[in-house]
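Holo prediction. Input below; ligand is 2-(butylsulfanyl)adenosine.
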Amino acid sequence: MDKAQAKQQIDELTGNLKEHNYRYYVLSEPTISDLEFDRLLKQLEYLETQFPELAHADSPTHVVGGSVINEFETVKHRRRMLSLGNTYNETELRDFDSRIRKAIGGEIEYVCELKIDGLAISLFYENGELVQAVTRGDGVQGDDVTANVRTIRSLNAELHGNFPDEFEIRGEIFMHRRGFEKLNRERISAGEPAYANPRNVASGSLKLKDSGEVAKRPLDITLYHLLGENLSYKTHTECIDAARSWGLKTADTTEVCRGIDEVLRFLEKWDKKRHALGFDTDGVVIKVNSLALQEELGYTAKIPRWAIAYKFQTESATTRLLEITYQVGRTGAITPVAELEPVFLIGTTVKRASLHNANEIERLDVRVGDMVFVEKGGEIIPKITGVDFSQRTEKSTPTKYASVCPECGTALIRHEGEAQHYCPNEDGCAPQVIGKIEHFVARKALNIDSIGSEMAKTLYSKGLVKDIADLYSITAEDLLKLERMGEKSAQNIIDGIQQSKNVPFERVLFGMGIRHIGETVAKKLALSLGSIENIMQANKENLLGIDEIGDVIAESLVTYFAEPKHKALVERLKEAGLKMQAPIKALPQAGNSLSGLTFVISGVFSEMNRDEAKDLIEAHGGKCSGSVSSKTDYLLAGEGMGPAKMEKAAQLGIKIISEDDLMVMISESNSITQPAQPSEPSKPSQTSLF
Ligand code: IVH
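Structure of the complex:
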């Protein structure tokens, strides 16, 4: 393919994919299947690797695959990013309305928009392309986070219609609660402390160095303020309607209200309805609709006179902070907890609240003895939102964060760039060891349900189990020596431990409780590398080659297995009879007949699905990659494979094989008595497909 053809295809694919993104993420009306979308995306990805200079800066491929390492240059806002005045009740809101009517006269037309709890962003578009995205910062200058913002799917649409050549549009980046909860479930399963709230995660995500990591975070955006030279719109709603017609994501809950009474009805309605929304809102922004009137009203030094935020009342209570205690998780992560004088809040008595980490304590400047405000937001655990400084006594001193582990006295450490402190004494710190045992026996890991939380504590405190491998040497006699232990219970425990030897490798790997290795990652590793030996031997580069394995996970694995004691633990688990390799599904036995060969799989097969084909190749030592390149050895072609792949393979002289050919390659050098013997790969017969 020559450059001109490539350009035409890249332009076409980019345009089509953006249109599909728009239909999916903005309109929620997709017209093609996810599979078809992925196929088109892969085609574009391939063409972009061949002709990188032709890739569009805002290509849809940046949303999924490609990583850009950010530098976050500070840039000055072309127009200052102001904040809004706040009101908390009807009287203050009526005052706002009176001030405006006094200045202008007559009844005012307002626009009411939900105030999404996220972070403000300013976007610049030139000729329909997003060219710059800047955070609010201090309002005068912010950080250039363009690469990260480009990964937001609802922004990845080709603009339509009659948009101005240049414009700025501002909005709020946020995370839906469902995405936030999913992220937290994954974090907890990987032994990481949960994030505090969707807002913090959204804001933290935008500051991630690797845009590939940002793309994995389910961020969304709503745009609410259009700015530009010579725009012909007369009202704020016209601006927003225009932006929507260009394909930008704007709110669909906005209403025009005539006069302040209608505004109040909007507030009343949304104070109740907001809880049913999938994201957090903390109020309503009320804006004068006419742009001419906005200009007439102007700005104070800090805020516009033509807009105000009304904050919803949250159920909050005031109580005294009695003590700050520290919890130690199974990976050693320390979470500070506020011990409160019991207070009644929305149906329950609150005695404790999470303080998250040292930064949060510093931010709140919260001290023992303070009267604090406690709120129940969307989260289940109540949070401390502030301190009533008027009630603070003179002798109060700033909180000194714990420097040693409250459980074992070891000095705490804090890794660079992380908010959490850790206790490094992983083998000698009781809650860490007990936590690891609890994690190991959990349903999703080794599923030994006869050992609960209490039993894990007892086994540890009585010296029977000091690490997870010790579980496999306890006997019924050992157990019978424990208080209140009957024969039946003891036998149940022994049976449960025995049965755990049948649990698949991926769950054993998850159960080992390695930092950052949650359920999904464990599965991925088990499938891709097949055995604990391969995982232990893999270096960072090997690991990074696996789909969805990023820096943090690769680093965590390499560090973990660099420790001889962890290798010894694996040996003991293996000796105990636990499964330490993944089953090979399609063939009775694996080998390495495909070792050193890279395959690209495309199309639909009759004997297996694509995942199975991948498993099969990997089980025999081969590698799979998503796109055809000079490094590809074989293209495994099924029915309906993409023409781009086929063409590329033909150009590069790559062999195209059928699934039957693959079977021949595997079986020819695969002897039952000789597993894993290195051998020359057999070359397939030229495929009958072409
Ligand atoms: S208008 C000059 N509209 O609230 C106009 N802001 O407290 C300023 N926000 O920094 C912003 N939803 O982060 C506006 N519909 C909305 C909003 C909104 C959320 C945030 C935004 C702003 C803050 C001001």
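Residues 82-84, 113, 115-116, 120, 136, 172, 224-225, 285, 304, 307, 309 surround 2-(butylsulfanyl)adenosine (CB under 6 Å). That is the main takeaway for now.
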